Amino acid sequence: MLRRTRGGRSPSSTWAMIGRRLLALPVVLLAVAAFTFFLARVSPRDPVQSYATVQSTVRQQTAEEIAAAWGLNEPPHRQFLSWLGNLLRGDLGNSRLLGGQPVLDEIGARLLPSAVLVGAALLLVLVGGLLAGTAAAAFRDTWVDRAVRTLCYVNLAAPSFWIGLLMIWVFAIQLGWLPPGGMTDPRAVDPPLVDLRHLILPALTLAAAQHAWFTLYVRNTVLSVRQDDYVRFAEASGLGRGTVLFRHALPNALLPFLTLTGAHLAELIGGTVLAETIFGWPGVGQLAVQAALAADLPLLLAITLAGSVLVVLGNLTADVSYRIADPRVREPAL
Amino acid sequence: MPVGAAVAAGVLAVLVLGALIGPVLRPARVDLDRVYAAPSLAHPMGADGSGRDLLAMVLSAMRVSLVISVLAAAVAVAVGVTIGAVAGILGRWADALTMRFIDFMASQNHFLFAILLVVLFRPVLGGQGAVLLSVGLTHWTTVARIIRSELLSLRTRPFIAAAIGGGAGRWRLFRRHLLPHLAPATITAMILLVPHAIFHESGLSFLGLGLPAHRASLGNMLADSQHAIYAGAWWTVLYPGLVIFALAASVGTLGEWLRDRTQPRWRSELQL
Predict the structure, then answer these.
(1) A270 and B111: CB-CB below 8 Å?
(2) Which of A165, A277, A295 sits opposite B237 (nearest CB)?
(3) What ipTM was assigned to the predicted interfaces of this complex?
(4) CB neighbours (10 Å) of residue A139?
């Protein structure tokens, strides 16, 4: 039986799944594009004004010239098609906030800091959640369990930006252990790409908003898997509690969390908006706030689109790795 | 009522009472002799950058934030019930299409999307209206799913067949026979959405994208405290956030208690 299952592993089916999902990607993106375009159309914001500065008013004639130059006087469906065409050619418009620079270049330049921050926070969530959740389950109903659960519930109800501000007060201002903001030390002669000391507080803030669901998930999964036959058999065979937990119970129990990670990536990316703003982290989230405050629509639309692409790709990656890690998902229904 | 829910009800009662009568008993006045005064007996939460008593500010901010969050949750529920009803009553292709749309919306990043909505609609709706709209249009998906599944299970019940047999039209069927059964689920979903709305209102205001800066909202107070903290005024950070925490935790706990009592099947659908 076991050999048959192993023999049924066909990498082609996984590839077919990836292919199908990648084919669906343009459809999803088209939906996002159409939806954002629709919103921008029904919104009362005048696209001509959004290319002028906030204070200045545009003369009627100039407004008509701008509208003609950008094709704003054409019917909506023509506008949408030409916008879509530009999108496909990688032209997302120019940003007023950045002095007429193409928005794609600026987003590209800020992707790395955001990716570093999201990666560090994800690592904190996964490792911290795994340790805390397993500890809470292993010492169920002791003070360890109660402490972990209390921390989770507190984090669910406390806004992450408040936690970030409190950490600035404690660790940066009172104790002076960590810098309160920025990505590198401005005084450094040859700053490293990523300064770990600068990364800690933003990553903790971002992780604070997300770790609770994962920790509680690990705790509940471990508790329920300990009732399963194969785990009880392993325990009855005389294996140590730690061996059973880490070698037998956890690997099986935690597979579905890969999918959950994909689903929560969207939240993590959204969290960068607040975390980057508090800590002056030069990433896409901070750019989104600047664009929003300056009502720079091309830039904001591009960031929203980029966020959607990342979320779709993240979900795809999670599903693929789930399939690779768990043979049961690949098998046709038994 | 378990202890947790009772404590939450008590905390919420105190907060709501404070929001109602606080601003009357303790009006906030600018006093430049008291700028960033530390907490004392006369001013238990200290003073802010204009020397206003922080307790008075927190009380009136709480009133604003509570009203906006409840309204925003109501908008989200209204959108969710409408879309869920379209899916659950029309069925077939309308259902399939709506479910695709719900999946699509639910997988998107709702905070970025909320920011986009605020920017697009603030010129006509004003800060407050834009917050209501953006929270409403980003938080309806769970409600729509719940309403749809409730409707799907209601449709198979004998009294619906009896009503159709009696000649009830679609609208009458919905209004007289389905809607009353949806009420408990709708109310519970709305209460569970209030903490989310509180986070979003405060988050957006914190970024300068929510309520206008002169309105005392908890998010605006925290936005001010971002600078005050470097002047050593830790109380301007601690107390507004603590109130958000207390509001979200007490409403959330009460909502979950209500959910476990009235909708035991939901456990996985809506989570704080």
Answers:
(1) yes
(2) A165
(3) 0.83
(4) 14
